[in-house]
Specification:
Blueprint lengths: L1 E11 L6 E6 L2 E6 L4 E6 L5 E5 L1 E6 L12 H10 L2 E6 L10 H14 L3 E4 L1 E2 L3 H8 L6 E4 L5 H18 L5 E4 L3 H12 L8 H5 L2 H17 L4 E3 L5 H8 L5 E5 L1 H5 L4 H5 L26 E2 L14 H4 L10 H11 L4 H15 L16 E11 L18 E11 L2 E5 L2 E2 L18
Parallel strand pairs: 1-4, 1-5, 6-7, 7-8, 9-10, 10-11, 11-12, 12-13, 13-14
Antiparallel strand pairs: 1-2, 2-3, 5-15, 15-16, 16-17, 17-18
The structure holds N-carbamoyl-L-aspartate and zinc ion (ZN) (2 copies).
Length: 439
């Protein structure tokens, strides 16, 4: 049999020895020890290992309405260059992605411009509007708890329970956990100081705001029998609340909350301003908290350099990490502080399962041919000038790494090879390679 594409004599994560992977019609159709023939043959080099296509459940591509910061084309190229085959985009665009019309519009934007598979989170809205959006299969309904009062929170969680009951669905609520009241109180106090340092931003939105908000979210999902995903979990105490909860709750860590603490404000200023803020070194989560249950969500949140330089309170919060996180974590694999198998679990299998991305997250016959090939031996330093993202800056600039993504394959099509992006996201039959993915 002649396959469309064959990966010849490759190492596959979690599997001993070398294998041949036969790809047909965008699917993994054969994994065999014996040789396979294909129209295209890919023979990975020394030190290269095949991972299931990496999935980022938390990106902001700013499309539509804020495309001067990033758009689906530059954001998805950034994802492809970072080794990601699927991303899930957030609804805080302009207009907000919380009506049937805007949601449908964004699917069309992604289908036109994205070179990786994409899912979409919806914002909350009226009950009727959310029922309409449910037909378009959002990955989850996203709530920014720092924008809600206790009563509006209760109403929204209640609406989602009603929707799941009436439609027979089980949509997740993805939560940005910062308590609005605690943030307002502490921001007011910090702003009242004679002068402000960048680090004051981390005291304006203290760890306590996240911990209280996580407890609120856990109480509400218990009350309304919902499932939750906690975005950018940044504190050990918040993690403890999640781990002891009997509810169905998942969580993600960002690279900046793993690697950086609020002392970085002193050297990098508002470049590291983000919500939730970098934490005091004693409060923060870190590499030691990465277990088989978590996920990595980059919270890729681009702003222009100008918007990042408007002072402590007016600078825009957000850090872009799609092209940094894999080299950083592969470096941990080389140091022995993270296994490659665990990296594949938290960056592919777990997000695929949690957001019901069928046939993704594992290298298995019949699954989609979404594959990330990494070179464990290639080293270098992070250079934001090479980013495909419009946000060509990073707190990880000049960080050295050992290990990087060298090929990204989406539905059997090579979309990135050695840092070069395939210009046309079209397969041999003229079909778009990447797709809108939904549960
Ligand atoms: N994380 C941030 O600081 N900013 C995000 C919004 C968010 O994720 O809260 C953004 O969209 O810029
Ligand atoms: Zn957020
Ligand atoms: Zn975000």
């Amino acid at each position: 049999m002649l396959f469309d594409t064959v990966l010849r004599n490759v190492k596959i994560v979690n599997m001993k020895g070398e294998y041949n992977i036969g790809i047909n019609e965008g699917k993994i159709s054969k994994i065999s020890k014996t040789g396979l023939n294909g129209e295209n043959v890919i023979s990975p080099g020394e030190g290269e290992v095949v991972l299931p296509g990496l999935i980022d459940p938390h990106v902001h591509f700013r499309d539509p309405g804020l495309t001067y910061k990033e758009d689906f084309y530059t954001g998805s190229m950034s994802a492809a260059n970072g080794g990601f085959t699927t991303v899930i985009d957030m609804p805080n665009t302009k207009p907000i992605t919380n009506t049937y019309k805007n949601f449908h519009e964004k699917i069309k934007i992604g289908e036109k411009k994205s070179i990786v598979n994409f899912g979409l989170n919806s914002g909350f809205n009226t009950y009727t509007e959310m029922c309409n959006i449910a037909k378009l299969k959002p990955a989850s309904f996203k709530i920014f708890m720092d924008l809600e009062t206790d009563s509006s929170l209760n109403e929204k969680f209640k609406d989602l329970q009603r929707l799941n009951t009436e439609l027979g669905t089980s949509f997740l609520v993805s939560c940005h956990c910062e308590n609005r009241f605690i943030v307002h109180e502490n921001t007011y106090y910090q702003k009242s100081k004679l002068e402000n340092q960048s680090i004051d931003y981390s005291y304006a939105r203290p760890s306590e705001a996240e911990i209280v908000s996580i407890k609120q979210a856990l109480d509400l999902i218990r009350k309304y029998d919902l499932k939750a995903h906690i975005c950018h979990l940044s504190t050990v105490k918040g993690l403890k609340e999640v781990l002891k909860s009997p509810c169905d709750v998942s969580y993600e860590f960002t690279p900046h909350h793993i690697y950086l603490d609020n002392s970085y404000f002193n050297s990098l200023g508002n470049m590291v301003k983000t919500n939730p803020p970098l934490r005091n070194v004693n409060d923060k989560i870190g590499l030691k908290n990465i277990t088989h249950e978590c996920m990595i969500g980059t919270d890729h949140a681009p702003h222009t350099l100008n918007e990042k330089s408007l002072g402590v309170w007016d600078s825009k919060p957000g850090i872009s990490n799609l092209e940094c996180v894999v080299p950083l974590l592969l470096t941990e694999v080389n140091k022995g502080s993270l296994s490659l198998g665990l990296l594949a679990k938290i960056m592919s299998e777990n997000p695929a399962k949690r957001f019901h991305l069928e046939n993704k997250g594992e290298i298995r016959e019949g699954y989609d041919a979404d594959l990330t090939i990494v070179n464990l031996k290639e080293s270098g330093v992070i250079d934001p000038r090479e980013f495909y993202s419009k946000a060509k800056y990073s707190p990880f600039k000049n960080w050295s790494y050992t290990g990087k993504p060298v090929m990204t394959i989406v539905n059997g099509g090579i979309i990135m090879e050695k840092g070069e992006i395939l210009k046309e996201d079209i397969d041999g039959k003229g079909e778009k390679i990447s797709k809108y993915v939904h549960s």
